Amino acid sequence: MRKLVCALLALMMLVGCHQAKESVQEQTANHTASMDSFDDSYYKIVKFEDSELREDFYLDYGSSTDFASIGRGLQILSTPYFSTNNHYMSEGQYLKLAMQKEMVSRSSQYSLQPKKGTVIENVENPTMLQNIQEQDYYVKSGDKYTLKGLSFALILEPRKSDNSRLDSAMSDGAIKSYGKECIEKFYKVIRSADEFEKIKNLPILITVYQAADTTTDPTSGRYILKSYCQKELGEISTLNQRTVLFASEQATKYDKATASAFDTVKTSLKNAATEAAGFVGEARYIDDEIQSMVIKAHLNVKTSTELMYLTSIIADGIESKFSDDFNVKVLVYSQDDVEAIIIKDKGDSVKSYFMN
């Protein structure tokens, strides 16, 4: 029975990363790689062409906490609409760089910026939209991938008309109000622009991400709005969702208690390990409450006894230091292979499973 449970757990963790050639909406894979996960919010990845938006996005957010929060958060928000059970995700293929620049520009017919002459909280002609990100979702049949839907993140980061930083932060209310307007404008462009003719009738999730205010709190970035559109604008609903990396400055500021518990377990592991050990977590928050955490522990062990010992150190730490209010999953690696899994469901005790 134990072997059967372990086999099922291993099967649940296997996901693929596929290389493909682009046609229009149906595409064919020609190369595969693999990754491991034990969280149903992760997609199998299919690789087509590189997104034209990648370079600008990296230049804008590559050195900030928003870099990970935007992409990972958009995946999580997409899961209710494009299930990870049967959908593959790819980098965005349909919003091209030229169109993105038109949307960010104030002078374009497709502009998502406030009209010239607009004043928001004493800021004349503010620049509200800084960037846009896209993720695409496919279903596989044989060796073909068919596009089934798309998700977009409209990244709002209010600045002056010349794109310099504001003297004081714009209120959350003003940003949210403009975010709703921005969603409406964006979907109108999707429905009307020739560039989106091939996708305009597909399900499209549009979200608004409020970038971190680096002058006051560089860890404050979060998703604030979403609208799921199916041939017409969907209801615009409010969000308060974050993805937080542990250990990090963001984690310490946002959730001091959990960050302290994480650091304690990490320190115990490092003190017990003969060789270097890695311990990295990713937590999901909704309305400022932690929902779940997935941890990857990378060990350099030489014997099965050493593996079991270090796994028990982690499990004991999770049991004694973490609260019972959220789900925790730990993938324990030896070199590149998953050798053990530690699970602590909300309200339950820790359970450990070894793969051999």
UniProtKB/TrEMBL annotation:
<feature type="signal peptide">
    <location>
        <begin position="1"/>
        <end position="20"/>
    </location>
</feature>
<protein>
    <submittedName>
        <fullName>Protein involved in sex pheromone biosynthesis</fullName>
    </submittedName>
</protein>
<keyword id="KW-0732">Signal</keyword>
<dbReference type="Pfam" id="PF07537">
    <property type="entry name" value="CamS"/>
</dbReference>
<dbReference type="InterPro" id="IPR011426">
    <property type="entry name" value="CamS"/>
</dbReference>
